[in-house]
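Deliverable D2.4 — example input (structure tokens):
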């Protein structure tokens, strides 16, 4: 399918005040289209795409998005400055609003390719990568990182990392306020076992007041977002935004001061039906889209039935849209 493009004048203003984290296997273009029905202002990120996949794989598939997803950022994984610069140019040509470098993923698979959190041990290389991307494009180049890794978890080392990358031209950092333990913990455990240290991230903001610092890690409510925004320039939610997506419906009013009335769950559900019809007409499966919508009924007595319809029953029916409509009926009036 052709790449999407958009002129700067057509795009919504990019703000990092509230964003949804890049999450592998989750924040694909179907997920982002759904989340955009709930919030017009949240910044949405792609799944991490490696430079090798983008340069040597199905580029159009990796970069595909709908125009309604703006503002939308592409997260890259890599450590070769020339490759990252080439991918940043591709992203800019495709119309993305930002390119983000992943310096936070702790998985063994990416470590072996010098991608993700292991790069925190190599601040000079990250700085070189950022400079190469900055020189290649006019869109923002940002970095998402941890507060440290095992063996390099002192505040002095974190400050040195941020300082070197800042000097290379990066003005916006998203800080996951946990260290990553690269030896002995799974990615899931790295999201839960290392303690959250918001105080360390706050110290970074104090020491680098001119940098834009976005806080990530463990944030679950908009009240917590409001509290953190007293210290930080933005907040990024990950799994909470995915499992409880209706939280985004209040974001525009509460965090951006929008007068737009929050969409109801039922209206958000109905807005997805034409999109699903188009996806199925092109040969796709409904489950590709509805798997991202299972949390829309969270908190209601019919939530279990809602999830069953969209995750199991649609596979058993030769009329999946009828099953979709049954699920939508559960959200009537909500």
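Example output (designed residues):
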């Amino acid at each position: 399918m052709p790449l999407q493009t958009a002129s700067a004048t057509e795009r919504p203003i990019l703000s990092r005040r509230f964003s949804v984290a890049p999450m592998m296997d989750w924040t694909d273009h179907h997920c982002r289209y759904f989340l955009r029905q709930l919030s017009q202002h949240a910044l949405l990120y792609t799944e991490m795409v490696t430079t090798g996949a983008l340069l040597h794989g199905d580029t159009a598939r990796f970069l595909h998005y709908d125009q309604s997803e703006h503002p939308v950022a592409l997260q890259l994984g890599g450590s070769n400055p020339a490759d990252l610069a080439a991918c940043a140019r591709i992203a800019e040509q495709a119309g993305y609003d930002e390119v983000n470098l992943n310096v936070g993923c702790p998985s063994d698979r990416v470590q072996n390719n010098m991608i993700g959190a292991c790069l925190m041990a190599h601040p000079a290389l990250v700085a070189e990568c950022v400079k190469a991307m900055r020189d290649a494009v006019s869109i923002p180049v940002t970095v998402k990182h941890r507060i440290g890794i095992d063996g390099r978890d002192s505040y002095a080392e974190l400050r040195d990392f941020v300082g070197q990358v800042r000097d290379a031209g990066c003005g916006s950092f998203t800080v996951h306020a946990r260290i990553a333990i690269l030896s002995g913990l799974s990615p899931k455990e790295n999201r839960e076992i290392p303690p959250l240290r918001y105080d360390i991230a706050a110290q970074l903001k104090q020491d680098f007041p001119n940098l834009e610092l976005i806080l990530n890690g463990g944030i679950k409510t908009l009240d917590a977002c409001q509290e953190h925004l007293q210290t930080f320039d933005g907040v990024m939610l990950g799994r909470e935004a995915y499992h409880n997506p209706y939280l985004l419906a209040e974001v525009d009013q509460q965090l951006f001061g929008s007068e737009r009335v929050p969409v109801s769950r039922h209206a958000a559900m109905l807005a997805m039906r034409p999109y699903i019809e188009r996806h199925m007409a092109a040969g796709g499966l409904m489950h590709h889209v509805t798997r991202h919508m299972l949390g829309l009924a969270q908190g209601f007595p019919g939530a279990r039935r809602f999830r069953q319809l969209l995750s199991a029953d649609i596979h058993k029916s030769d009329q999946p849209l009828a099953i979709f409509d049954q699920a939508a009926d559960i959200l009537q009036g909500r």
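The chain has two domains: 8-256, 265-330.
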